[in-house]
Design brief:
It contains 16 helices and 17 strands. It has 418 residues and is of the alpha/beta class. The protein has 2 domains: 4-77 and 372-417, Urease, subunit C, domain 1 (Roll); 79-365, Metal-dependent hydrolases (TIM Barrel, Alpha-Beta Barrel). An 8-stranded parallel β-sheet has the order 7-8-9-10-11-12-13-14. The chain has a 5-stranded mixed β-sheet with strand order 2-6-15-16-17, with no helix packed on it. A 4-stranded mixed β-sheet has the order 4-3-1-5, with helices on one face. Helix 8 (232-244) links the parallel strand 10 and strand 11 (248-253). Helix 5 (126-142) packs across helix 6. It is globular. The two termini are 31 Å apart. The mean pLDDT is 96.
């Protein structure tokens, strides 16, 4: 059965059709098209054209037609390419203690830190985790985020990591958003393997990755390369096995110290995420590579540290994505549009650079084709804002919510539902 949907007239349509993948972008790159319409067919964009001509075609095809306000800005659906929304519990007390001046070690000694989330997540059943993940995904979808990467990493054992990945797969049946699972088995060193990190890595390589591949639970892996977690040498067998299994690699890199971004580049990772500690050497290497540099302003706002050097990365020619890092510890806000707007204010990013970092360029951080742009053949993932000025989407710093969200051509959200 063929289903047609049409939206229009659109006063400001931003497609990113001709936007380059790498480097700095001026705001003339927004180049909104006026008085446009979008015809969608079976979840894909069929045509983008002048409203008058395309509306007549839509009527002949008996398309489901959605009119828009006189002033409307339409963008590709947003993409959050780095989240940890599969978890149980919260770390509100950690946040209060951190703001009161306690160190990470002191918080951990009092029972907080990542291990607190590991404990709560281990105690949760798969069904509960699936429901929690879907609830968070649906909230993000209402805010215009149509594709969401979701990591494991709070299981920290074979059984618990599998439980998380299976919960993410189950959550996909409970949300219209596209979930992209990533195996972050090398997040922290489990307490059960204290002083024996290499043995844990071997266990993951030999016993977890084959099951993930067999059950098709994830097409991506991740590792946290940082002091107190995993060294470049420790992750070598993990990434080599991933590459041998045709799994994409991404890296938690340069959050507090450098070294991770170089590993990401050496393994031709699809992205290096965090980068708050990246210096000129790391920036130059990332800019010269095909690895997407992903800024996570949510972690900066949660921890009170510096932002990733987004401006310098772009000026040197890098591909910059912007993601939320939504997690219960260091990035509890989970509001991508607000975070990206604030990052832009501090790093002096153009509206085009911010919005492409959440759409077209973010799609490359997930190695996903046919999303992140509005053009024929692409997924009909579309977000509508009731404003005639595209810059207002960022100017309002997340307080201007979408009036409509379409996922695969289906109207998911309207303003009165939010």
């Amino acid at each position: 059965m063929i289903n047609y949907t049409y939206i229009g007239p659109i006063s400001q349509l931003i497609t990113f059709e001709e936007t380059p993948l790498k480097g700095a972008l001026h705001d003339d790159g927004l180049a909104p098209k006026k008085n446009q319409g979008i015809l969608m067919k079976n979840g894909r964009i069929e045509a983008v054209d002048d409203h008058g001509a395309l509306f007549a075609k839509a009527e002949k095809l008996k398309a489901k037609i959605y009119g828009l306000p006189k002033k409307s800005t339409v963008l590709p659906g947003f993409i959050d390419s780095h989240t940890h929304i599969c978890f149980s519990g919260d770390r509100a007390l950690d946040y209060a203690r951190r703001n009161a001046g306690m160190t990470y070690l002191e918080i951990a000694e009092k029972g907080g830190g990542i291990w607190d989330t590991v404990t709560h997540t281990r105690n949760a059943g798969q069904q509960e985790l699936a429901q929690l993940t879907a609830q968070r995904a649906n909230l993000l979808l209402s805010r215009g985020i149509t594709t969401i990467e979701v990591k494991s990493g709070y299981g920290q054992s074979i059984e618990e990591e599998l439980k998380m990945l299976r919960a993410i797969a189950q959550a996909q049946k409970l949300t219209k958003a596209t979930l992209v699972p990533t195996c972050l088995a090398l997040h922290i060193i489990p307490r059960e393997f204290k002083g024996k990190a290499e043995k844990y890595v071997d266990t993951i390589v030999n016993n977890l990755l084959p099951i993930i591949k067999e059950e098709n639970l994830a097409a991506r892996v991740d590792a946290f390369i940082e002091q107190g977690s995993y060294t470049p040498l420790m992750v070598k067998p993990f990434f080599e096995k991933a590459r041998e299994s045709n799994l994409d690699i991404t890296v938690h890199a340069d959050q507090f110290t450098t070294g991770g971004s170089k590993v990401a580049i050496n393994y031709e990772a699809v992205s290096a995420d965090h980068l708050e500690a990246s210096g000129e050497v790391e920036i130059a290497l990332l800019a010269q590579s095909n690895t997407v540099a992903t800024a996570l302003p949510g972690a900066t706002l949660g921890l009170g540290c510096g932002f990733a050097p987004a401006r310098r990365l772009l000026d040197q020619g890098a591909c910059l994505a912007i993601a939320s890092d939504w997690n219960p510890g260091s990035a509890p806000m989970g509001d991508l549009l607000t975070q990206a707007s604030i990052l832009g204010a501090f790093e002096k990013l153009t509206s085009t650079e911010i919005l492409t970092g959440m759409t077209y360029r973010a799609a490359h951080a997930l190695r996903r084709e046919k999303i992140g742009r509005i053009r024929p053949g692409y997924a009909a993932d579309i977000v509508v804002f009731e404003t005639g000025n595209p810059h207002e989407v960022l100017y309002r710093q997340g307080q201007l919510r979408p009036s409509k969200v379409f996922k695969n051509g289906e109207l998911i959200q309207q303003a009165h539902d939010i």
